[in-house]
Amino acid sequence: MKAVHTTQAPAAIGPYSQAIEVNGFVFASGQIPIDPATGEFVEGGIQEQTRQALTNASNILKQAGTDLAHVVKTTVFLSSIADFAAMNEIYAQFFTEPYPARSAVAVKDLPKGALVEVEVLAVKPE
Length: 126
Fold this sequence. Notes:
alpha+beta; CATH 3.30.1330.40; 2 helices
């Protein structure tokens, strides 16, 4: 088991790793829309926040030697299911066919009041 860390994504704000690599898989922790350069949320609404969360996830995968094209499963947490369509518009810009499996759910609250959190599970290219 190997921890993955990059400065191109927000540092862990608790006792967890940005990602763990094991047996050819990369399990990335959920990413919220923090700009790693500022440590603050990106300005804007659900679309801007989705873009930043996925950019953070992409940067973590890159550090681990893989990318979004190798994502097999995502989980999207929304603070409001009413944001689903707007989130999906941005999400679709980050993935191509065959699309990863996905769960998308609305939850009561997200860390720091985020509108979205995205976690990804990827395989390393052979």
